[in-house]
Design goal:
Layout lengths: L8 E5 L4 H13 L4 E6 L19 E5 L5 H10 L4 E4 L6 H6 L2 H24 L7 E7 L24 H20 L3 E6 L2 E2 L8 H11 L3 E4 L5 E3 L1 E2 H14 L5 E4 L4 E3 H15 L12 E4 L14 H7 L7 H14 L1 H4 L5 H11 L1
Parallel strand pairs: 1-2, 1-4, 2-3, 4-5, 5-6, 6-11, 7-10, 8-13
Antiparallel strand pairs: 9-12
Helix pairs in contact: 1-7, 2-4, 4-5, 6-8, 8-10
Bound molecules: nicotinamide-adenine-dinucleotide.
């Protein structure tokens, strides 16, 4: 049954972060009658500015709070009569999980458990409505690392997480799955490949490279640069999640990917060439002269690749953006919105940068 026509009250956790804020915009544009509630703790990665243009929308509410705060979650579910949870809130950066895994277990495992448990009680009190959904947004990193010739990750690939980040996401995926099998709670899990696009926090690979090129700073590439990621434009991820909420089957997992496997070094080179073309007055040109290989990240997964056949054949979703065009749009956004990222290069950011790259 398609749920798209029914009016929803949608709770979006982590809606001030990168993908969450893109999804909030996407949902508000496409479902103007729906009630949209964003719950976000505003950690270093959350930025209320990402949602500034929505603050005056009638059916929009921003709540600053922690997904581990059960009384708060229970209150929101009841007061807002939530029909749908889209759960993005997480600690999301592998490098930070290596430096300090505690927050990852707390938010990703305990936080997801708190949301599931609160939603279960609320859903029971409501008489188990069939049209409810709990969308748990997860990552392809739970599947571990592929060799060059291995087939891409499918929904039945065994979990083999290698970092505290992916292990904590794997734990939260298992909880979401168990809540469907044990309590019939209508959970759906999505496992997506690497995203890029607007509102991406500056310490992640693509914004970091763009900003360092603008500042004339070295472009740190881990190890030999041969690690492969399957890149997806964030707008495509949002349309996939919309499709899953509207047409996905409760209890199922859907893999989401862009069919865009690129080696890190090739991606960085592509970014350099696009920056040479699009940015004026670069301190170093050609920008690829800034590329510097640095000591590899511990347990660095070699290759990720997504087999997105299931979401294509069962739900009819395919990505629209090519890497070339998506990167061009992303770079133009970072060039035009320097006021967005400049304040984020704070003392905390500099300290983090120093710890990771020396
Ligand atoms: N970025 C990617 O490439 C990618 C790919 C696949 C899946 N994912 C998943 O998508 C989700 C969003 O990723 P992102 O890149 O937008 O992350 P992000 O780090 O940019 O944003 C996370 C958001 O969650 C909020 N948050 C953190 N802890 C919280 C807590 N305890 N309570 C409430 N809010 C909290 C932060 O303030 C922030 O706004 C994550 O679950 C991540 O695992 C990300």
């Amino acid at each position: 049954m398609s749920l798209s026509k029914e009016k929803k009250s949608i709770l979006i956790t982590g809606g001030a972060g990168f993908i969450g804020s893109n999804f909030v915009h996407h949902w508000c544009q496409n479902y103007s009658d729906d009630q949209v509630i964003v719950l976000d703790a505003l950690t270093y990665a959350g930025n209320r500015q990402n949602l500034a243009d929505l603050e005056n929308r009638k059916q929009f509410k921003f709540i600053q709070g922690d997904i581990c705060d059960r009384p708060l979650i229970e209150k929101i579910l009841k007061e807002e009569q939530v029909t749908t949870v889209a759960h993005f809130a997480a600690e999301s950066h592998v490098d930070r999980s290596i430096l300090g895994p505690d927050a990852f277990v707390q938010t990703n495992v305990i936080g997801t458990f708190t949301l599931l448990e609160s939603f279960r009680h609320y859903w029971n009190e409501q008489g188990n409505p069939e049209n409810s959904r709990f969308l748990h947004v997860s990552t392809d990193e739970v599947y571990g690392s592929l060799e060059a010739d291995d087939p891409a990750f499918s929904e039945v690939t065994p979990y083999a997480p290698n970092s505290p980040y992916s292990a904590s996401k794997a734990g939260s995926d298992h909880l979401a799955r168990a809540y469907f099998h044990t309590y019939n709670l209508p959970t759906i899990i999505t496992n997506c490949s690497n995203n890029y696009g607007p509102y991406h926090f500056p310490e992640k690979l693509i914004p970091l490279m763009c900003i360092n090129i603008l500042l004339g700073k070295p472009l740190p590439v881990y190890g030999d640069g041969q690690n492969i990621r399957d890149w997806l434009y964030v707008g495509d991820h949002c349309s996939a999640l919309e499709t899953v909420i509207n047409k996905g089957k409760a209890g199922e997992t859907y893999n989401i990917g862009g069919n865009n496997e690129v080696k890190n070094i090739d991606l960085v080179t592509m970014l350099c060439e696009l920056m040479d073309e699009l940015a004026s007055d670069l301190p170093v040109k050609p920008a690829k002269e800034l590329i510097t290989f640095v000591k590899d990240r511990p347990s660095h997964d070699r290759r990720y690749a997504i087999d997105a056949t299931k979401i294509k054949t069962e739900l009819g979703w395919t990505p629209k953006e090519t890497v070339e065009n998506g990167l061009r749009k992303t770079i133009e956004w970072y060039l035009n919105d320097q006021k967005w990222w400049q304040p984020l290069l704070s003392k905390d950011y500099q300290e983090y940068y120093q710890k990771v790259y020396g």
